[in-house]
Amino acid sequence: MIIIGVENMHKYCFVFALGYLTVCQISRVYIFDYGQYSADFSGPMMIITQKITSLAYEIHDGMFRKEEELTPSQRCLAVRRMPSLLEYLSYNCNFMGILAGPLCSYKDYITFIEGRSYQLTQSEANGKEEIKYEQTDPSPNIAVAQKLVVCGLSLLFHMTVSKTLPVEYNIDDHFRATASLPVRVIYLYLSLMAARPKYYFAWTLADAINNAAGFGFRGYDKKGVAHWDSISNLRILHIEFSTSFKMFLDNWNIQTALWLKRVCYERASFSPTIQTFILSAIWHGVYPGYYLTFLTGVLMTLAARTKEH
């Protein structure tokens, strides 16, 4: 730390964490089971990498940067003191998000652990809307039940429709040789749409688990209805009825998108869009398809911005 400087520790932490994750991804893909999407250690490692790097940057913002240098979001999430070992391990390895996330900021997590989340959220909402609500702990039961229903429907869809439209059939030699181009394009679209419910199931279940533990309360709306979506990872209707590539990305894997924005996009000195998509590809894994997908995403994003202007 003396040699490299404490003020640069967040950068070295980022490089080490992402480098270790990449080594894990390489060993999983090219040593153990190439092409097999199984539940293994790499999934939790991806989440922990996000948490470690997020916290490193939040500590840097809170302890080594001037207040006027921070953006509003950085100022809100900045950590002003060094976490204890117990707090650090609790944040990274808590049972609610160790397997599938979703990512949350360290400040939000500690606020929840200390039991301050309800009071803070309500006072902020009341101050803004000038409406007074009773200071009671909201029940997550309805939100959890609704999300479990979504999980059940997603799982049912995956076990039925998704099985009849396997993605692997797109590269079947007989199908490629006999089907016309329009048929292949239509099947590609339908099979990819049918593959999404497994992600809906995993992320919604993870969200429900956090809510059941009391984490994820965002606040009340004007009618006094409690909302449990502060760490939700997707908005299914917005995804299925998205009208642009940006709208799809904004509602898919939301917490990862926020992580990319906070640690890369807002801090990049040049070409933030390109750097962010490259980081996303590296974080996802080492399959060539990831890099093709996200580099294509760069072109689509830049083209959409050009059209808007």
Label this structure with key terms.
65% helix; 1% strand; 309 residues; mainly alpha; 2 strands; globular; 3 domains
Largest sheet: 2 strands, antiparallel
Q: Please identify the structural class as seen in this structure.
A: mainly alpha
> What spatial form do the alpha-carbon principal axes imply?
globular
Number of strands: 2
The N- to C-terminal Cα distance equals 46 Å
Helix fraction by DSSP (H/I, runs of at least 4): 55-70%
Low-pLDDT runs of 5+ residues are 122-135
Average pLDDT rating: 87
Tell me the number of helical segments per DSSP (H or I, 4 or more residues long).
15
Specify Rg, calculated over alpha carbons.
21 Å
Q: Kindly report the spatial arrangement of strands forming the biggest sheet.
A: 1-2
Topology order in helix (H) and strand (E) letters = HHHHHHHHHHEEHHHHH
Strand content: under 5%
How many structural domains in the coordinates?
A: 3
Architecture overview:
- The protein is mainly α.
- It has 3 domains: 1-114, no CATH class; 141-213; 234-309, no CATH class.
- Helix content is 65%, strand content 1%.
- The protein is built from 15 helices and 2 strands.
- The chain has helices at 9-32, 42-64, 72-77, 85-93, 106-113, 117-129, 141-164, 173-178, 181-195, 197-212, 236-240, 245-251, 254-265, 272-284, 288-308, and strands at residues 219-220, 226-227.
- Strands 1-2 form a two-stranded antiparallel sheet.
- A hairpin with a 5-residue loop joins strand 1 and strand 2 (226-227).
- Helix 2 crosses helix 13, helix 7 (141-164) runs antiparallel to helix 10 and helix 13 crosses helix 14.
- The chain is globular, with a radius of gyration of 21 Å.
- The N and C termini lie far apart (46 Å).
- Mean pLDDT is 87; it is low at 122-135.
